[in-house]
Specification:
The chain is built from 16 helices and 24 strands. With 498 residues, the chain is α/β, with parallel strands linked by helices. It has 2 domains: 277 residues, 3-Layer(aba) Sandwich (Aldehyde Dehydrogenase, Chain A, domain 1); 186 residues, Aldehyde Dehydrogenase, Chain A, domain 2, CATH 3.40.309. Helix 3 runs antiparallel to helix 5, helix 3 packs across helix 7 and helix 8 crosses helix 9.
Length: 498
C-alpha cells in the first residue's frame, strides 16, 4: 500500500519554490521546470530556473562572502555550522527522505538511509576536518636558491575560492552533501545547481543552511537546466572550480567550457563496474549481493555492478540464482514499503533502457530475464543477459538502468583484459575466499575503488572516484577536502647562514 504523503511534505510541495542567493530567497527568472513524480507521471510542483543574471548575482554573492564574514570565519566556527547541519539533517530525515522519493522515485527507506547515513555523516565528518587544515614548514636545501642565505619555507592551505557544484538526480541528498560539506569545510563559497529532474531536495538543504546560521552568500542554490545554467557555470569567469557528478558526455563539455579561465575541475562520471566471482566464493552471499550491486536504485547509480564475471565452474548456477532473485524483486512506487525497485527517472530514460534490452538480444545475448515496461509511471523490471561477450553494447556502455550483463571466464589474464576493456574505471568487486588471489585481482583492476567480498563499500572516510573516462579527482575522505584547497608557499629569508 502506498503511504500517504506527510503533512509537512505536502506543505513544502504546495509552497513557493525559489532560489537562495546571498542569503535571500528569490523567485527564479528563467524557464519553468515542471517537477514530475516518476512513479505516477503526476506533477509535484513547478520551479523557475535561474536566469543568467541571477547566476552572476549568485557568483557575486559568493565572492562577497569570501571577502567578508565567511572569509573571516575560523575553522572552528565553520565546523560548528557543519555539525549543526548534520543535526538538522537527522532531525528532518523523514521530510528529506520523502521529498527525495517523490522527486526521483527511490524507495522511501533507501532515501531515508541516504539522508541519515550519507548526507548527515558527510557533514559531521567534514565538520571535524575544518580545524585540521594545516600546512608544513621546512628549510630548503639550497637556501631559497640564494647561496649563503638561510631560508624557512612555510606552506599554508587556502580555499580554492568560489565553487560551482552541479549535482545529479539519482541521490540528491547524498550528492548535495558530498559537494557542500567539504567545500564549506575548506572555506570555499558555493554556488550549487540542482538537477532539473529532481530539484526539490536541494531547496530543503538551502533552508537548513540558513537555519544552521550559515553566513549569507557562502552557500547559494540555483535551479536550472544543464544546457543553459550548468553550461554557463562551467564557463563563468568568476567561478574558480567546478565540482560535477553526472555523465561522461557532459563531463567532456564541462572540461571544454572550463578552459576559459582554466578553472579547476573535479568530475565523478560514468561507470561499468565489474563484479568478479570465483568458485570458492560464498555463493549464498554472492547471489543477492550481485543482484543488488546492479539493481539498487533501479540501476541508476554510477558504481552499479552492471557486468557480472562468473567463473565457468559456477556460471550457470550463479547466473540463474541472480535472475531468480531479480524476478522476485517488487517493482513499484517508492512510497510503498513493499517496493524494492522504484521507477526510472523519466519516460525518455525508460525508452532508452528498454532499447538496450532489444540491442542485447540483437547482438546475440540470451535473456534469462528480460525487463518489461509497466505504467503509468516509468517502471522497467530487471533484465539479466547471459552469453554476453566483450564488445557488446550492454558490456561496453553505461545503461544506467536495471540491466545486467553476465560474462563467463576461466583464464585470469583474459578476465583482466575484459574487465579493463571498457572506457570506464570507477568501481568493482572481487568475490573469493582466497585473499592472495583477491588482492592480486584487485591490484589488476583499473578502477578508483575495488571491494573484496562486498561491492561499493563506501564511507565518508574512503576516497572514491574514477580512472580514465570515469572522472578526474577523488571525493570523500581527506582527498575530497584537498580538492577544495590550494597550497601557498611562503619563503622567509632568515639572513646569512651562521
Amino acid at each position: 500500500m502506498i503511504a500517504p504523503i506527510d503533512a509537512a511534505t505536502r506543505e513544502f510541495l504546495d509552497g513557493q519554490h525559489a532560489l537562495l542567493i546571498g542569503g535571500e530567497w528569490t523567485a527564479g527568472e528563467g524557464r519553468e521546470i515542471v517537477v514530475e513524480n516518476p512513479a505516477s507521471g503526476a506533477q509535484l510542483a513547478t520551479v523557475n530556473a535561474a536566469s543568467l543574471g541571477q547566476l552572476d548575482d549568485a557568483v557575486a554573492a559568493a565572492r562577497q562572502a569570501l571577502r567578508g564574514p565567511w572569509g573571516r570565519t575560523s575553522g572552528r566556527d565553520r565546523g560548528v555550522i557543519l555539525a549543526r547541519m548534520a543535526d538538522l539533517i537527522e532531525r528532518d530525515a523523514d521530510l528529506l527522505g520523502e521529498v527525495m522519493t517523490l522527486d526521483n522515485g527511490s524507495p522511501l527507506e533507501s532515501s531515508k538511509m541516504v539522508v541519515r547515513h550519507l548526507a548527515a555523516e558527510l557533514f559531521r565528518y567534514y565538520a571535524g576536518w575544518a580545524t585540521k587544515i594545516a600546512g608544513e614548514s621546512f628549510q630548503p636545501s639550497l637556501g631559497g636558491g640564494r647561496a649563503g642565505l638561510d631560508f624557512l619555507v612555510a606552506t599554508v592551505r587556502e580555499p580554492v575560492g568560489v565553487v560551482g557544484a552541479i549535482v545529479p538526480w539519482n541521490a540528491p541528498a547524498g550528492m548535495i552533501a558530498l559537494k557542500m560539506a567539504p567545500a564549506l569545510a575548506a572555506g570555499c563559497a558555493l554556488v550549487l545547481k540542482t538537477a532539473e529532474l529532481a530539484p526539490l531536495t536541494g531547496e530543503l538543504f538551502g533552508r537548513l543552511w540558513v537555519e544552521a546560521g550559515g553566513p549569507p552568500g557562502a552557500f547559494n542554490l540555483l535551479h536550472g537546466y544543464g544546457e543553459d545554467i550548468g553550461a554557463a557555470m562551467a564557463a563563468h569567469e568568476g567561478i574558480d572550480k567546478i565540482a560535477f557528478t553526472g555523465s561522461t558526455a557532459v563531463g567532456r563539455k564541462i572540461v571544454e567550457a572550463a578552459t576559459g579561465n582554466l578553472k579547476r575541475v573535479t568530475l565523478e562520471l560514468g561507470g561499468k563496474s565489474p563484479v568478479i566471482v570465483f568458485p570458492d566464493a560464498d555463493l549464498d552471499a554472492v547471489i543477492p549481493a550481485a543482484a543488488m550491486a546492479c539493481f539498487l536504485s533501479t540501476g541508476q547509480q554510477c558504481m552499479a555492478g552492471s557486468r557480472l564475471f562468473l567463473h565457468a565452474d559456477i556460471h550457470d548456477q550463479v547466473a540463474q540464482g541472480v535472475a531468480d532473485f531479480a524476478a522476485a524483486m517488487t517493482v513499484g512506487d517508492g512510497m510503498d514499503p513493499a517496493t524494492t525497485l522504484g521507477p526510472l527517472i523519466s519516460a525518455r530514460h525508460k525508452a532508452r533502457v528498454l532499447d538496450y534490452t532489444v540491442v542485447a538480444r540483437a547482438e546475440g545475448a540470451t535473456a534469462l530475464l528480460c525487463g518489461e515496461a509497466t505504467g503509468p509511471g516509468h517502471f522497467v523490471s530487471p533484465s539479466v543477459f547471459t552469453g554476453v561477450t566483450a564488445g557488446m553494447r550492454i558490456e561496453q556502455e553505461e545503461v544506467f538502468g536495471p540491466v545486467l550483463a553476465v560474462l563467463k571466464f576461466d583464464d585470469e589474464d583474459a578476465l583482466i583484459s575484459a574487465v579493463n576493456g571498457t572506457p570506464y574505471g570507477l568501481s568493482g568487486s572481487v568475490w573469493t575466499q582466497d585473499i592472495t588471489r583477491a588482492l592480486r585481482i584487485a591490484k589488476r583492476v583499473d578502477s578508483g575503488q575495488v571491494a573484496i567480498n562486498a561491492h561499493a563499500a563506501m564511507s565518508a572516510e574512503t576516497p572514491f572516484g574514477g580512472n580514465r573516462q570515469s572522472g578526474w579527482g577523488r571525493e570523500f575522505g581527506r582527498e575530497g577536502l584537498d580538492s577544495y584547497l590550494k597550497t601557498k608557499a611562503i619563503s622567509i629569508n632568515l639572513g646569512p647562514k651562521t
